[in-house]
Amino acid sequence: MNAPTLSVVIPAFDEEEIIGECLARLVAQRVHITEVVVVDNNSTDRTREIVAEYAARWSAIRLLTESEQGLVHARNRGLDSATGELLARIDADTLVPPHWAGHIVDFFAADADHDWAAACGRGQAYDLPYGDTVGALRQRWRARKADRVKAVPVLYGSNMILRASTWARVRDRVTMRRDIFEDVDTGLCVTETGGRNAFLPTITVGVAPRRMATGTASFARYMACLPRTLVLHRRYGLALAAATVYLPAIITLHAARLALLRLHNPGNGQFTPTEVWHKPSDRVAP
Question: Does the keyword Cell membrane apply (predicted)?
């Protein structure tokens, strides 16, 4: 089988704390990665300098600039500029595991008939003070059926792959609105143009829990993007179910999780009641 070329696109906005480790993990898999395209979206910290340092060591890393603020603009700039037959899109705080790129290339190389237009894997939060118990249980369960690929209606933005031909087909269909879930929108555009999205249980990545630490009101506003995205695609029944069933449940879970997170003192690694009054900064939408 001829292995398809793989480009990895990373939109970045003020990611100096984690972009280096993100790139280091990709560099370690350069045998399967043709290029890494980092799109800086008006960062005010050392993001550009750190990316430049890695690019000096590996010429396959390219640093682009997108002045129009917003994830969708940075995403499009990167995907439009990428040269691979496969276009992976991850976040700057995504930490890929060993063999991530190899699994992706092997999967699409075996798909000679192009039955799959796109694919994604899940994300498992790292650096949680209590550990990602739910994620660990899911991993154990999915390990039993690790070779089972299934079709899913949407994609996961921190860990998604499009064929270049798929991106060309949906490029003018994806919305540029910033008040929707761009990954859900992209996945629905794929299925609405006759493509299929594969879920690959073998490519789980680590994701930062920053969204989990945001205030409940901010989190609720963020999650409201889901029914809004479904309405955009005229999935009215799903939008209603999301708004009346899923959102209340996930926001309640978030509130409980947030209380536990705020009890944690990262300085000594202990849970301290007085820490509940410490309010970290909300995650800023890029």
Answer: yes
